[in-house]
Amino acid sequence: MTNSHAMASRAISRRTLLGALTLPWLVGGCTTPLPLVQAPANDAGAVSRLRDSAEAHGLAAYRQMTDINVSYSGKWRPLVGRIQPEVVDEGYRGSSQERLLPSTAVVAQAYTGAKGNKHVWWRRGGTAPNDAGEVAVWFNGVRSADDAAQQAAALVAEGYGLFLLGPLWLNDRGLRMQSGGTERVDGRVCDVVDVWLSPGLGRVATDRVALCIDRGDGLVHRMRFTLEGFANTQGAVAEVDTFEHERRFGVTWPMRSFERIVHPIALPAHDWRITGLDVNRGYEAKEVSGPAFTGAAAAAATPV
Protein backbone atom coordinates (compact mmCIF):
# COMPACT_ATOMS: atom_id res chain seq x y z
CA MET A 1 0.00 0.00 0.00
CA THR A 2 1.36 3.47 -0.92
CA ASN A 3 1.74 6.21 1.66
CA SER A 4 -1.13 8.16 0.13
CA HIS A 5 -3.38 5.11 0.20
CA ALA A 6 -2.39 4.37 3.80
CA MET A 7 -3.12 7.97 4.84
CA ALA A 8 -6.47 7.85 3.07
CA SER A 9 -7.33 4.56 4.74
CA ARG A 10 -6.50 5.94 8.17
CA ALA A 11 -8.58 9.06 7.47
CA ILE A 12 -11.54 6.93 6.38
CA SER A 13 -11.16 4.72 9.45
CA ARG A 14 -11.09 7.78 11.70
CA ARG A 15 -14.16 9.28 10.04
CA THR A 16 -15.93 5.93 10.32
CA LEU A 17 -15.11 5.68 14.02
CA LEU A 18 -16.15 9.24 14.80
CA GLY A 19 -19.31 8.78 12.78
CA ALA A 20 -20.16 5.62 14.67
CA LEU A 21 -19.71 7.43 17.98
CA THR A 22 -22.47 9.87 17.08
CA LEU A 23 -25.00 7.06 16.64
CA PRO A 24 -27.25 5.92 19.49
CA TRP A 25 -25.55 3.39 21.77
CA LEU A 26 -28.29 0.89 20.96
CA VAL A 27 -26.87 0.34 17.49
CA GLY A 28 -25.70 -3.26 17.57
CA GLY A 29 -27.55 -3.81 20.84
CA CYS A 30 -28.59 -7.30 19.81
CA THR A 31 -24.97 -8.42 20.17
CA THR A 32 -24.35 -6.81 23.54
CA PRO A 33 -22.18 -8.92 25.87
CA LEU A 34 -24.67 -8.30 28.72
CA PRO A 35 -28.20 -8.60 27.31
CA LEU A 36 -30.88 -7.26 29.63
CA VAL A 37 -33.03 -10.36 29.48
CA GLN A 38 -35.42 -11.09 32.32
CA ALA A 39 -33.61 -12.08 35.49
CA PRO A 40 -33.53 -15.87 35.89
CA ALA A 41 -34.11 -17.83 39.05
CA ASN A 42 -31.21 -17.60 41.48
CA ASP A 43 -28.22 -19.87 41.03
CA ALA A 44 -27.24 -20.95 44.54
CA GLY A 45 -23.64 -21.50 43.45
CA ALA A 46 -23.39 -17.94 42.14
CA VAL A 47 -24.89 -16.49 45.32
CA SER A 48 -22.41 -18.47 47.40
CA ARG A 49 -19.47 -17.43 45.21
CA LEU A 50 -20.31 -13.74 45.52
CA ARG A 51 -20.79 -14.09 49.27
CA ASP A 52 -17.38 -15.77 49.59
CA SER A 53 -15.84 -12.92 47.60
CA ALA A 54 -17.53 -10.34 49.84
CA GLU A 55 -16.01 -12.07 52.85
CA ALA A 56 -12.58 -12.01 51.17
CA HIS A 57 -13.03 -8.26 50.65
CA GLY A 58 -13.85 -7.77 54.35
CA LEU A 59 -17.61 -8.17 54.77
CA ALA A 60 -17.59 -8.30 58.57
CA ALA A 61 -15.64 -5.04 58.86
CA TYR A 62 -17.70 -3.36 56.13
CA ARG A 63 -20.92 -4.06 58.01
CA GLN A 64 -19.55 -2.04 60.92
CA MET A 65 -18.83 1.04 58.79
CA THR A 66 -21.18 3.97 59.26
CA ASP A 67 -19.41 6.13 56.69
CA ILE A 68 -16.59 5.82 54.16
CA ASN A 69 -14.55 8.86 53.13
CA VAL A 70 -12.47 8.70 49.95
CA SER A 71 -10.51 11.08 47.76
CA TYR A 72 -9.60 10.32 44.15
CA SER A 73 -7.40 11.71 41.44
CA GLY A 74 -7.78 10.59 37.86
CA LYS A 75 -7.71 11.32 34.16
CA TRP A 76 -10.31 10.83 31.44
CA ARG A 77 -9.27 9.96 27.89
CA PRO A 78 -10.08 12.89 25.54
CA LEU A 79 -12.30 11.03 23.06
CA VAL A 80 -14.63 9.84 25.83
CA GLY A 81 -15.15 13.43 26.91
CA ARG A 82 -16.26 14.29 23.39
CA ILE A 83 -18.80 11.51 23.06
CA GLN A 84 -20.17 11.52 26.63
CA PRO A 85 -19.74 15.13 27.85
CA GLU A 86 -22.45 14.92 30.54
CA VAL A 87 -20.93 11.81 32.11
CA VAL A 88 -17.34 13.04 31.97
CA ASP A 89 -18.18 16.69 32.74
CA GLU A 90 -14.50 17.51 32.35
CA GLY A 91 -14.82 21.16 33.41
CA TYR A 92 -15.74 20.07 36.94
CA ARG A 93 -14.62 16.48 37.35
CA GLY A 94 -11.01 16.75 38.38
CA SER A 95 -10.03 15.52 41.84
CA SER A 96 -12.88 14.51 44.12
CA GLN A 97 -13.87 13.95 47.72
CA GLU A 98 -16.52 11.24 48.13
CA ARG A 99 -18.67 10.18 51.08
CA LEU A 100 -20.57 6.90 51.28
CA LEU A 101 -23.12 5.96 53.94
CA PRO A 102 -23.81 2.27 53.26
CA SER A 103 -26.78 1.82 55.59
CA THR A 104 -28.74 4.63 53.90
CA ALA A 105 -27.56 3.92 50.30
CA VAL A 106 -26.23 7.49 50.06
CA VAL A 107 -23.24 8.59 47.97
CA ALA A 108 -22.14 12.23 47.88
CA GLN A 109 -19.35 13.62 45.72
CA ALA A 110 -17.51 16.95 45.72
CA TYR A 111 -15.52 17.60 42.55
CA THR A 112 -13.00 20.32 41.79
CA GLY A 113 -12.11 21.18 38.20
CA ALA A 114 -11.14 24.00 35.87
CA LYS A 115 -14.67 25.47 35.96
CA GLY A 116 -15.02 25.29 39.72
CA ASN A 117 -16.87 22.99 42.12
CA LYS A 118 -19.55 20.39 41.58
CA HIS A 119 -21.47 18.67 44.37
CA VAL A 120 -23.59 15.55 43.89
CA TRP A 121 -26.05 14.01 46.34
CA TRP A 122 -27.41 10.57 45.51
CA ARG A 123 -29.61 8.10 47.38
CA ARG A 124 -30.25 4.78 45.69
CA GLY A 125 -33.89 3.89 45.10
CA GLY A 126 -35.63 1.00 46.78
CA THR A 127 -37.64 -1.91 45.48
CA ALA A 128 -40.93 0.01 45.31
CA PRO A 129 -41.88 0.93 41.71
CA ASN A 130 -42.22 4.62 42.56
CA ASP A 131 -38.85 4.89 44.35
CA ALA A 132 -36.29 5.86 41.68
CA GLY A 133 -33.90 7.36 44.21
CA GLU A 134 -33.00 10.96 44.91
CA VAL A 135 -30.40 13.06 43.12
CA ALA A 136 -29.32 16.69 43.34
CA VAL A 137 -26.45 18.49 41.62
CA TRP A 138 -24.86 21.87 42.41
CA PHE A 139 -22.40 23.75 40.20
CA ASN A 140 -20.42 26.39 42.11
CA GLY A 141 -23.05 26.37 44.84
CA VAL A 142 -26.05 26.76 42.51
CA ARG A 143 -28.46 23.84 42.28
CA SER A 144 -28.98 22.56 38.74
CA ALA A 145 -32.41 21.85 37.25
CA ASP A 146 -30.91 20.15 34.20
CA ASP A 147 -32.33 16.63 33.90
CA ALA A 148 -29.39 15.28 31.90
CA ALA A 149 -26.92 16.49 34.53
CA GLN A 150 -28.97 14.83 37.27
CA GLN A 151 -29.37 11.52 35.47
CA ALA A 152 -25.66 11.33 34.58
CA ALA A 153 -24.68 12.26 38.14
CA ALA A 154 -26.88 9.52 39.62
CA LEU A 155 -25.35 6.90 37.32
CA VAL A 156 -21.79 8.00 38.16
CA ALA A 157 -22.38 8.18 41.92
CA GLU A 158 -23.88 4.68 42.13
CA GLY A 159 -21.20 3.37 39.81
CA TYR A 160 -18.43 4.62 42.06
CA GLY A 161 -19.94 2.80 45.01
CA LEU A 162 -19.81 -0.40 42.95
CA PHE A 163 -16.26 0.21 41.70
CA LEU A 164 -14.93 0.89 45.20
CA LEU A 165 -16.69 -1.93 47.02
CA GLY A 166 -17.50 -4.59 44.41
CA PRO A 167 -19.22 -7.56 46.07
CA LEU A 168 -19.64 -5.65 49.34
CA TRP A 169 -21.93 -3.21 47.48
CA LEU A 170 -24.06 -6.08 46.15
CA ASN A 171 -24.06 -8.87 48.71
CA ASP A 172 -26.92 -7.96 51.03
CA ARG A 173 -29.42 -6.70 48.46
CA GLY A 174 -31.26 -9.92 47.54
CA LEU A 175 -30.27 -9.65 43.87
CA ARG A 176 -30.67 -12.38 41.24
CA MET A 177 -27.40 -14.06 40.26
CA GLN A 178 -26.16 -16.68 37.80
CA SER A 179 -22.79 -18.33 37.21
CA GLY A 180 -21.20 -17.02 34.03
CA GLY A 181 -18.33 -19.42 33.43
CA THR A 182 -14.68 -18.42 33.75
CA GLU A 183 -12.52 -15.60 32.42
CA ARG A 184 -8.83 -14.71 32.61
CA VAL A 185 -7.97 -11.27 33.97
CA ASP A 186 -4.28 -10.40 33.74
CA GLY A 187 -3.46 -14.11 33.84
CA ARG A 188 -5.72 -14.86 36.80
CA VAL A 189 -8.40 -17.52 36.42
CA CYS A 190 -11.65 -15.92 37.57
CA ASP A 191 -15.16 -17.23 38.11
CA VAL A 192 -17.76 -14.92 36.58
CA VAL A 193 -20.92 -14.12 38.52
CA ASP A 194 -23.67 -12.34 36.58
CA VAL A 195 -25.85 -10.08 38.73
CA TRP A 196 -29.18 -8.53 37.75
CA LEU A 197 -28.92 -5.19 39.50
CA SER A 198 -32.29 -3.78 40.54
CA PRO A 199 -32.46 -0.87 40.95
CA GLY A 200 -29.66 -0.26 38.50
CA LEU A 201 -26.86 2.28 38.28
CA GLY A 202 -28.69 5.54 38.76
CA ARG A 203 -32.38 6.19 38.26
CA VAL A 204 -33.16 3.08 36.27
CA ALA A 205 -34.98 -0.14 37.10
CA THR A 206 -32.34 -2.65 36.01
CA ASP A 207 -28.71 -3.01 34.99
CA ARG A 208 -26.57 -6.08 34.67
CA VAL A 209 -23.13 -6.58 36.21
CA ALA A 210 -20.60 -9.38 35.67
CA LEU A 211 -17.99 -9.77 38.41
CA CYS A 212 -14.75 -11.65 37.73
CA ILE A 213 -13.72 -13.27 41.02
CA ASP A 214 -10.17 -14.57 41.37
CA ARG A 215 -10.07 -18.26 42.28
CA GLY A 216 -6.89 -17.62 44.23
CA ASP A 217 -7.55 -14.65 46.51
CA GLY A 218 -11.33 -14.32 46.11
CA LEU A 219 -11.07 -10.66 45.09
CA VAL A 220 -12.97 -9.07 42.22
CA HIS A 221 -10.46 -7.90 39.62
CA ARG A 222 -12.91 -6.89 36.88
CA MET A 223 -16.51 -5.65 36.75
CA ARG A 224 -18.42 -5.44 33.48
CA PHE A 225 -21.73 -3.55 33.48
CA THR A 226 -24.50 -1.99 31.46
CA LEU A 227 -25.21 1.74 31.62
CA GLU A 228 -28.98 2.06 31.29
CA GLY A 229 -29.41 4.94 33.73
CA PHE A 230 -28.61 7.72 31.24
CA ALA A 231 -30.20 8.13 27.82
CA ASN A 232 -26.92 8.68 25.96
CA THR A 233 -25.27 5.54 27.40
CA GLN A 234 -28.18 3.11 27.06
CA GLY A 235 -27.06 0.00 25.21
CA ALA A 236 -23.41 0.54 26.15
CA VAL A 237 -21.31 -1.87 28.21
CA ALA A 238 -18.16 -0.86 30.10
CA GLU A 239 -15.78 -2.59 32.46
CA VAL A 240 -13.51 -1.57 35.31
CA ASP A 241 -10.31 -3.40 36.25
CA THR A 242 -8.95 -2.93 39.77
CA PHE A 243 -5.32 -3.04 40.91
CA GLU A 244 -2.95 -2.54 43.85
CA HIS A 245 -5.42 -3.78 46.46
CA GLU A 246 -4.64 -2.87 50.07
CA ARG A 247 -6.16 -3.97 53.36
CA ARG A 248 -7.20 -1.02 55.51
CA PHE A 249 -9.77 -0.88 58.31
CA GLY A 250 -10.46 -4.59 57.76
CA VAL A 251 -11.52 -4.12 54.11
CA THR A 252 -9.54 -4.69 50.92
CA TRP A 253 -9.70 -1.62 48.66
CA PRO A 254 -8.75 -1.19 44.99
CA MET A 255 -6.21 1.62 45.19
CA ARG A 256 -6.01 1.99 41.40
CA SER A 257 -8.70 1.42 38.75
CA PHE A 258 -9.07 1.60 34.98
CA GLU A 259 -12.29 1.84 32.98
CA ARG A 260 -12.85 0.99 29.32
CA ILE A 261 -15.85 0.86 27.04
CA VAL A 262 -16.31 -2.62 25.54
CA HIS A 263 -19.58 -2.18 23.59
CA PRO A 264 -20.53 -0.97 21.02
CA ILE A 265 -16.85 -0.05 20.48
CA ALA A 266 -13.65 -0.76 22.38
CA LEU A 267 -12.28 2.44 23.88
CA PRO A 268 -10.14 3.32 26.93
CA ALA A 269 -12.03 5.71 29.16
CA HIS A 270 -10.68 6.58 32.60
CA ASP A 271 -7.80 5.95 35.02
CA TRP A 272 -8.05 6.88 38.70
CA ARG A 273 -6.56 6.11 42.09
CA ILE A 274 -7.42 6.53 45.76
CA THR A 275 -5.43 9.36 47.33
CA GLY A 276 -7.19 9.49 50.70
CA LEU A 277 -9.26 7.13 52.85
CA ASP A 278 -10.79 6.97 56.31
CA VAL A 279 -13.96 5.55 57.88
CA ASN A 280 -16.45 5.92 60.74
CA ARG A 281 -16.41 9.66 61.44
CA GLY A 282 -19.98 9.39 62.68
CA TYR A 283 -21.82 12.07 60.67
CA GLU A 284 -25.37 11.92 59.32
CA ALA A 285 -26.68 12.08 55.76
CA LYS A 286 -27.68 15.74 56.13
CA GLU A 287 -23.99 16.67 56.46
CA VAL A 288 -23.28 15.55 52.89
CA SER A 289 -26.54 16.67 51.30
CA GLY A 290 -25.12 19.76 49.56
CA PRO A 291 -24.17 22.21 48.28
CA ALA A 292 -21.05 21.32 50.32
CA PHE A 293 -19.94 18.87 52.98
CA THR A 294 -20.43 20.15 56.54
CA GLY A 295 -19.62 19.06 60.08
CA ALA A 296 -17.64 15.86 60.45
CA ALA A 297 -17.95 15.16 56.72
CA ALA A 298 -16.13 18.34 55.69
CA ALA A 299 -12.48 17.44 56.29
CA ALA A 300 -10.61 15.87 53.39
CA ALA A 301 -10.11 12.11 53.48
CA THR A 302 -6.92 11.13 55.28
CA PRO A 303 -4.08 10.93 52.72
CA VAL A 304 -2.75 7.47 51.89
Explain this structure.
With 304 residues, the chain is an alpha+beta fold. It has one domain: outer membrane lipoprotein receptor (LolB), chain A (Clam). Helices cover 23% and strands 37% of the residues. The chain is built from seven helices and 13 strands. It has a 13-stranded antiparallel sheet. Strand 7 and strand 8 form a beta hairpin.
CATH topology: outer membrane lipoprotein receptor (LolB), chain A
> Could you say which overall geometry the principal axes of the C-alpha atoms support?
globular
- Summed over residues and divided by their number, the pLDDT gives a mean of 90
Question: Which range does the strand content fall in?
Answer: 35-45%
User: If strands are numbered along the chain, what order do they take across the biggest sheet?
Assistant: 6-5-4-3-2-1-13-12-11-10-9-8-7
Q: Level of helix content? A: 10-25%
What is the CATH class designation? Mainly Beta
* Number of structurally distinct domains: 1
Secondary-structure element pattern, one letter each: HHHEHHEEEEEHHEEEEEEE
Please describe the structure with a list of short key phrases separated by commas or semicolons.
13-stranded antiparallel beta sheet, alpha+beta, 23% helix, 13 strands, 304 residues
